[in-house]
């Protein structure tokens, strides 16, 4: 028999074939139904899906035969992908000079072959969907069209698998980079804490030891140093908190007594005489207490800091929905301009407003809140007006 020669674009075809990551797969059950359907439609005893690589014909799915590969040089499918025909048919192999002495003919008693090349979107023939019979045959127009349609469906499945692999690779790379970024942030933040504390302490010591000796400008410079130090400290602590927040999600869900939970929140924050209203009865079941604590602490702390009212008031409500826990945190603070409310949950985005101590936020706290809420299967919204306070409503999945 005359052996088929590789095509001119063989290198590109092989490279395209590798992208589907199926060459090391013994079988691919995804295609079994299509292979069986192809054989049944054509009333043939044998059918399979093949991918043609350098030396072998890899069989992804077989019907009526048990094989995982055959030699490419003697494969009917190699001729099929080089034929440039939409469906390649050998009706009577014994009458074909090209195939009559093919060892496959004798070993498997093959007398009929029909194969449809699997043409990917770039135009490369990856392999075939084919059927065999032990007697000479002909296919009807309906059978030919059905085989072609099934081959196109196989290509669609191949493309879907490739896209899934690409998405998985992209996700793995993203996870890797996020882990590297998290490690970098933790290392840098930790290494900055000590020298930053030294700067703050030395500035305070310099001020105390030179009382009456420093002019107005020098005192102003020391104020700038202290203010910058506190701002940097806020960024460091916020960044560490943002990345540590993911660790909280690893905690087991439990049930919490609402009254005890909010009492603990109250004890953790300095309320400055603020009115703090919260549920005094009820239980929230199946909830991550550690993550919820971080969310509520951030929101209540903001409500305290960004509030210049004579009587600061913070009200918290809880509602058990069908699939979620819902918390509402309302304050009578400064409020947030509606034009920037859509950005306040973005990392490092600030409102531009200064808190009651004259310090500007870092834009990390609310980003941490949204990060946790989203990963807990919930959502968060904000309703606010300048001078009238803010209302945050967030949900977490039960």
Mean pLDDT: 84
Distance between the termini: 69 Å
Overall, the morphology is elongated
Largest sheet: 6 strands, antiparallel
CATH superfamily of the largest domain: GAF domain
Low-pLDDT parts are 1-5
Spell out the helices and strands N to C.
HHEEEHEHEEHHEHEEHEEHEE
The helix fraction, in percent, is 40-55%
Please state roughly what percent of the residues sit in beta strands, choosing from under 5%, 5-15%, 15-25%, 25-35%, 35-45% or over 45%.
Answer: 15-25%
Provide the CATH topology of the largest domain.
Beta-Lactamase
The structural domain count equals 2
* CATH top level label of the largest domain: Alpha Beta
Specify the CATH architecture of the largest domain.
Answer: 2-Layer Sandwich
Would you tell me the structural class of the helices and strands?
A: alpha+beta
Rounded to the nearest angstrom, the radius of gyration is 35 Å
Strand segment count: 13
**Helical run tally:** 9
Which strand order spans the largest sheet, edge to edge or round the barrel?
A: 3-2-1-6-5-4
């Amino acid at each position: 028999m005359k052996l088929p020669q590789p095509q001119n674009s063989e290198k590109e075809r092989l490279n395209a074939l590798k992208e589907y990551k199926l060459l090391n797969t013994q079988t691919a059950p995804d295609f079994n139904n299509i292979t069986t359907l192809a054989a049944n439609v054509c009333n043939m005893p044998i059918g399979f899906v093949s991918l043609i690589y350098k030396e072998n014909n890899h069989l992804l799915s077989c019907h009526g035969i048990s094989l995982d590969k055959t030699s490419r040089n003697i494969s009917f499918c190699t001729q099929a992908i080089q034929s440039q025909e939409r469906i390649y048919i050998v009706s009577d192999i014994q009458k074909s000079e090209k195939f009559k002495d093919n060892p496959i003919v004798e070993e498997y008693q093959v007398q009929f072959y029909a194969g449809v090349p699997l043409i990917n979107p770039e135009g490369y023939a990856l392999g075939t969907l084919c059927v065999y019979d032990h007697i000479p045959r002909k296919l009807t127009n309906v059978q030919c069209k059905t085989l072609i349609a099934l081959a196109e469906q196989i290509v669609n499945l191949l493309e879907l698998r490739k896209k899934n692999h690409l998405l998985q690779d992209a996700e793995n790379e993203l996870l890797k980079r996020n882990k590297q970024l998290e490690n970098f942030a933790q290392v840098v933040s930790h290494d900055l804490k000590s020298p930053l504390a030294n700067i703050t302490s030395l500035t305070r010591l310099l001020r105390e030891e030179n009382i009456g000796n420093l002019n107005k400008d020098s005192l102003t410079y020391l104020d700038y140093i202290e203010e910058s130090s506190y701002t940097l400290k806020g960024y460091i602590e916020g960044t560490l908190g943002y990345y540590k927040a993911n660790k909280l999600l690893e905690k087991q869900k439990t049930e919490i007594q609402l009254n005890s939970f909010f009492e603990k929140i109250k004890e953790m924050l300095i309320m400055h005489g603020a009115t703090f209203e919260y549920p005094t009865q009820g239980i929230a079941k199946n909830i991550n207490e550690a993550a919820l604590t971080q969310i509520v602490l951030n929101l209540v702390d903001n409500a305290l800091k960004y509030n210049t009212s004579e009587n600061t008031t913070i009200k918290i409500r809880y509602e058990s929905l069908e699939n979620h826990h819902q918390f509402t945190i309302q304050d009578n603070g400064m409020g947030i301009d509606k034009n920037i409310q859509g950005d306040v949950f973005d990392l490092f985005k600030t409102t531009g407003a200064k808190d009651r101590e004259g310090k500007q936020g870092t834009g990390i706290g609310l980003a941490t809140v949204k990060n946790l809420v989203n990963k807990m299967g919930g959502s968060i919204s904000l309703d606010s007006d300048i001078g009238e306070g803010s209302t945050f409503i967030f949900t977490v999945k039960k």
